[in-house]
Amino acid sequence: MTSPTVDEHDRPEPPQVADEIATLFGFLDHLRATIRWKTNGLSTEQLHSTPLSTTMTLGGMLKHLAYVEDHWFCHVLTGRERCSPWDSVEWQKDPDWDWNTATEDDAADLRALWSTAVDTSRRQWDLFAAEHTSPLDAPVERPVRGDMNARWIITHMVEEYARHCGHADLLREATDGMTGD
Known about the structure:
Blueprint: H1 20-39, H2 44-48, H3 58-76, H4 97-100, H5 107-130, E1 139-140, E2 148-149, H6 150-176
Helix pairs in contact: 1-6, 3-5, 3-6
């Protein structure tokens, strides 16, 4: 397998000809790298800022995406309990805890939390895929709303990142004027 081409923002280009797993993860990794790019270089204050008429911040987005990575790849895909800090959250009291508490974290901690979650998700996928002949078709027991297969989880993660990359474009431009796809 050849190494992916990266663009001027160090984002891997999704493969144009590949199997389904490589294509799905190619797009997911491109979107993950877009979030990294859109949040790099910002101070803690900038990551906490709300430059638009929204409570959404880029720091909150990093913490939310760290939670989403852990939830889908470590909790749902593998059936493990949630990892720290997610395991001690009283989600019923604050369903948006990940977004709301990001203002308590500095920029380096938010970036590290997200980056670690992405690395852990990749390892969890590799372990899961090694255990299944057709990993995308492998059934996954979902705690609520019925079972699914692993393909659904990866496709959902692509959708989750794509949606937040659009938010990140707007927030970053409003924060310091940086633009780009």
